[in-house]
Amino acid sequence: MKFGTKAIHAGIEPDPTTGAIMTPIYQTSTYVQRSPGDHKGYEYSRTHNPTRTQLQNALAALENGKHGLCFSSGMAAVDAIIKMLKPGDEVISTNDLYGGSYRIFTKIFQNYGIKFHFTDMGDLTKVESLVNENTRMIWVETPTNPLLNIIDIKGCAEIAKKHKLLVVADNTFATPYLQTPLDLGADIVMHSLTKYMGGHSDVVMGAIVVKDDDLHQQLAFIQNSCGATPGPQDCFLVLRGLKTLHLRMERHCQNGRQVAEFLKGHVKVEKVFWPGFEEHKNHKVAQEQMRDFGGMVSFVLKGDKVEDAISVLEKLKIFTLAESLGGVESLCGHPASMTHASIPAEERMKAGLSESLIRLSVGVEDIEDLLSDLERALR
Ligand SMILES: *Cc1c(COP(=O)(O)O)cnc(C)c1O
């Protein structure tokens, strides 16, 4: 099946008891057993819930994986993956990582004896130079947030194979519409479903998809033991959102391209970060591993003054000032004071996160309205 057909049908079965075409919301915590241990595969909703099962199957299909696991947030999915490690283990990741991932790595798991290295993963020699006998995992996020750097997933997988490491890919920004990391050699795909996958800014949820049965067992054990599972109502909302993922992504990409080109030609703009530009330093890799370039665009103002960025953000009307991304509505944000405030200023500068950097999540509205909103705010 092609992607759009899969988004609508894959992993979804009509409800076995009624034939309902839409997956029912199984709002139940437990399931009746006829005799001890004699049940229909469902015992307790932390462990399994039919609405969640359908969503997990749909996600596995979209990522070309075998098993999906859903969590109560993207961060709970990150948490579950790192819980596979032990004190002394090391992880290599990118230096412009999602702020929340950076925070859980350095402020939580570092206290449990797990060590994290952050480097410019656009350069694979830097990644390989950090590998030692304690390394267990390479954590890839691509495109990165908010600088839209591109990391070569296949290249990371080759290094990982050589040293017997796991590759995790946070696929939140790209979604399986744009790239399927498991096909490029990653072992684990992680998502914040809160963003493009849910797509309607109405739910917080995370997911993991794997191909390997052993990895699935380990992660399912953590999912059930630690208990950060989503409720059935939220699973229903994401199932509903997934059905239009391909349509939304197509428009996000079209609008993203036009916004990036508009900003690039604007006198008040110093630099635009968008992987579709030929001069983007990893454009070639983006072209190879992605179908298109997505709806995220970041830019820096001439003079790099924080006041100027704040003024632009206050003037924007259709681009709403809010954290998060990937919904149908366009959002704007100021990483230095919002999403990335938990990264120390010094680390932020090292990673190239300028004070006037503005991040746009370009929605699916009419492009004329989005461009005139930007035009007016930059005047
Ligand atoms: C939002 C986000 C997360 C965290 O997900 P939540 O659902 O907010 O917990 C992780 N990675 C990336 C890239 C994100 O954008």
From TrEMBL:
Domain of life: Bacteria
Residue list for modification N6-(pyridoxal phosphate)lysine: 195
Any single GO BP term: transsulfuration
PROSITE patterns: CYS_MET_METAB_PP (PS00868)
Alphabetized InterPro entries for the sequence: Cys/Met-Metab_PyrdxlP-dep_enz, Cys_met_metab_PP, PyrdxlP-dep_Trfase, PyrdxlP-dep_Trfase_major, PyrdxlP-dep_Trfase_small
Cofactor(s) needed by this chain: pyridoxal 5'-phosphate
Keywords for the protein's UniProt record, in alphabetical order: Pyridoxal phosphate, Transferase
Keyword ATP-binding attached: no
UniProt record similarity statement: Belongs to the trans-sulfuration enzymes family.
Protein name per UniProt: Cystathionine gamma-synthase
Naturally occurring in which organism (per UniProt): Pontibacter diazotrophicus
